[in-house]
Design brief:
112 residues; mainly beta; two-stranded antiparallel sheet; elongated
Length: 112
């Protein structure tokens, strides 16, 4: 069983930016009142990226462009694929960097 990505999870770019996760199915699909993320969005915004320099230009990660990459195969809620926390390593920012989810197994209500 996949570990669902939740709206409160903090996906981070390598420059300390945090993804702003908003679930489309969260009103009816939640765990202890915390919305479960689905992968139907075309992108998830990133806030607070400190950026990196390329020559004289500072670039910032502004979004995660491929939420569908972490979909939980064969696990749908309301006809939408749920985002799987174990597949976060497949996500990329708009600048091509991988994102991280600090310890997805630390969720107190997920039993493995």
């Amino acid at each position: 069983m996949p570990i669902p990505l939740l709206e409160i999870d903090k996906l981070k770019c390598p420059h300390q930016g945090v993804a702003i996760l908003e679930s489309k199915i969260g009103q009816v699909a939640n765990i202890q009142g915390i919305p479960i993320m689905d992968t139907s969005a075309s992108a998830w915004a990133i806030s607070g990226c400190q950026g990196f320099w390329v020559g004289n230009v500072k670039l910032l990660c502004t979004s995660i462009t491929n939420p569908h990459a972490c979909k939980a195969d064969k696990f749908k809620v309301l006809g939408k694929f749920v985002a799987d926390a174990e597949k976060v390593d497949k996500l990329k920012t708009d600048k091509g960097f991988s994102v991280t989810l600090p310890n997805p197994y630390a969720k107190p209500f997920v039993k493995r």
